[in-house]
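Protein entry
_____________
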Amino acid sequence: MKIRTFLILLVFSLVMSLLPNCKKGSPTSPAPPAVVFKGSISFGGQRLANTRVYLSWDASQSTQTNANGEFEFRGFTGSHFIITPSLLGYAFSPSNYTLASQPRNDLNFAAQPASFGSKPDEIAADLSARNQSGQNVSLYEHFG
């Protein structure tokens, strides 16, 4: 009787110790598909090389476009991501992509020169500028 009780407890303990492993899946379960984000950056119809591109939100990485203006992110986990390009003196359309964990290979950006102030190449030496309605605005009153 004691041996029988001992064997029952031993089998029960063994089964209970194996249960947590069942939640993790079997060793032969397929790995989740790899998420890869790919795209390109162009300027005036030409691909733009050496542009920094950032991956953020659930993962954090950065890369640069290659000689063909292409970029790629891989080797990360998560379910929410933002892809944002950055190059001094340029603005991008779209400014970023907000993505889920489905692979994408169509993340294309168009670069254009960034404009500052009311007119490109104009410096407001007297701390004045024009607002969106075209009216003169003096920054001197606020920062002079």
Summary: DSSP finds two helices and eleven strands in the chain. The CA atoms of residues 101 and 135 lie 46 Å apart.
